[in-house]
Amino acid sequence: MRRTEAHQGVRMIKFSSILSRYEAAEFSQAEAAELLGIGERTFRRWRQRFEDEGEAGLLDRRLVRPRASGFLRIGAKRWRRCIARVTRFHGQAFS
């Protein structure tokens, strides 16, 4: 298990615990957010995502989202033009 996955698990457990105490009116929203080390707005977002999606809503989306490679970011057409320019400049030895 990677360290980021472990942190994610700890965050879910901690959030669930504090959320249940918040819902039992033991904490205010500001106190719950402070205990988690996040802002009130983030707490509200997490709470909404947790209600909508369950624990899956708390997953760090940066870890599960596929990253676009340079080819996809630049686009096939621009990539081919770039290769054509380099080939023209350096000759056919590059191809």
Q: Describe it for me?
A:
With 95 residues, the protein is mainly α. It has helices at 3-23, 29-36, 40-53, 61-64, 70-74, 76-90. The longest helix is centred in the first third of the chain and has 21 residues, at 3-23. The chain is rod-shaped.
Count of individual beta strands: 0
Whole-Å distance between the termini? 41 Å
SSE pattern, N- to C-terminal = HHHHHH
Q: How is the main sheet built?
A: none
**Structural class of the secondary structure composition?**
mainly alpha
Strand fraction equals: under 5%
DSSP helix count? 6
Q: Which value, in Å, is the CA radius of gyration?
A: 23 Å
Mean pLDDT: 78
- State the share of residues found in helices, binned by percent: over 70%
From the spread of the alpha carbons, the general shape counts as rod-shaped
Return residue spans where pLDDT drops below 50 for at least 5 consecutive residues. none
Gist?
The chain has 95 residues and is mainly alpha-helical.
Which structural traits does this protein have?
single chain, 95 residues, mainly alpha, 6 helices, 71% helix
Topology:
Elements: H1 3-23, H2 29-36, H3 40-53, H4 61-64, H5 70-74, H6 76-90
Helix pairs in contact: 1-2, 2-3
